[in-house]
Specification:
This protein has 314 residues and is of the alpha/beta class. The strands form two sheets. Strands 1-2-10-7-8-9 form a six-stranded mixed sheet, sandwiched between helices. The radius of gyration is 19 Å and the shape is globular. The structure holds pyridoxal-5'-phosphate.
Length: 314
């Protein structure tokens, strides 16, 4: 239990609370990771906790990449600000609409001082991807920079996700739950994998269930494999009733989001509706059981996503 003691000592943020909502004919517990910190919340805060809680001698800059509206851009800009680092965030392209937005992840990151680089505007060889450009032409000239892969998909993420695992294990113990499903939608699958790995290693009756919001189940399994070759750590991937294209609008996602938010907690619009659809189908085939849904933050992105939905479906 060395890891557990280490985690207890290093606790930077207090344990997040657990609320209860009533959905799909039963109570569902909600782990409020959206409340970790106003600017540093959800699973990005868990995945980046390692960087926050360790000293990085000589580091002056953080380098990341991904979508210009990503939750990870905002979290990395907050992390950089907290650490006194510069953030250079490379994106394949930024649309005019995103550039002009005054709310949401992009606008708030710029307000935090993020330097967002539109790689499509650099007139590079078209065959060069964003990540190749960073690796070949940026990082060699940046000895004082720390590079974080897209979405925080790296071993460092295990540190903060284990802290989340410990909080859940202690909470479930206090509730005396005989068996608990922990449900969260996956993008890169980093959070779900390291969380399930923690529960397997601790030998407790807690099991992670997830679904693929980016790509299909096979792609998610591939992402698990890149993080760990040991398949005993892999979370159960719940099937979805149809294909939901990431970032596109789906009327059933919007309906699900409205239904869940009626319970008094605002969830985010990209991942959570798909997560709740998968959970609904899981519970209807399995019957009632104890479920803890992880609120992984990201509601700032609703400021740009919700108006898109309202224009289309109201
Ligand atoms: C980033 C993010 C995810 C996906 O997390 P992974 O660890 O990449 O699977 C899910 N939900 C929200 C709200 C996020 O911001």
């Amino acid at each position: 239990m060395l890891i557990t003691r280490q985690l207890m000592r290093r606790r930077m943020f207090p344990s997040t609370p657990v609320d209860k909502i009533n959905l799909f004919g039963q109570d569902i517990f909600v782990k409020r990771d959206d409340l970790i910190h106003p600017h540093f919340s959800g699973n990005k805060a868990r995945k980046f906790a390692y960087f926050l809680e360790h000293e990085f001698k000589g580091i002056k800059k953080l380098i990341g990449h991904g979508s210009a509206q990503a939750n990870s851009l905002y979290s990395m800009s907050a992390l950089a600000k907290l650490k006194g680092w510069q953030l250079d965030f490379y994106v394949a392209h930024i649309s005019e609409q995103v550039k002009q937005s005054v709310v949401g992840n992009y606008a708030e990151s710029i307000a935090f001082g993020a330097n967002v680089v539109d790689v499509s505007a650099l007139a590079l060889s078209p065959s060069l991807t964003t990540i190749e450009y960073i690796q070949q032409q940026v990082l060699p000239h940046e000895p004082a920079a720390l590079f974080v892969p897209e979405g925080g998909r790296c071993e460092y993420a295990e540190f903060g996700v284990s802290q989340l695992g410990l909080e859940i294990m202690q909470w479930a113990g206090a509730q005396a739950l005989p068996h608990l499903y922990v449900c969260l939608p996956s993008g890169t699958g980093t959070t779900a994998l390291f969380l399930n790995k923690f529960f397997v290693e601790q030998g407790c009756n807690i099991q992670v269930i997830t679904c693929a919001t980016v790509g299909d189940e096979e792609y998610l399994t591939l992402q698990f494999r890149q993080l760990s070759p040991d398949s005993t750590f892999y979370p159960q991937i719940l099937p979805l009733p149809k294909k939901y294209h990431f970032g596109k609008l789906h009327s059933d996602c919007y309906k699900m989001w409205c239904q869940v938010c009626e319970q008094g907690i605002e969830f985010e619009l990209l991942y959570d509706p798909v997560g709740f659809i998968a959970l609904r189908d899981f519970l209807s085939s399995k019957g009632a059981c104890d479920v803890l849904y992880i609120h992984q933050g990201g509601v700032l992105g609703n400021q740009t996503m919700l108006p898109r939905y309202q224009r289309k479906y109201s």
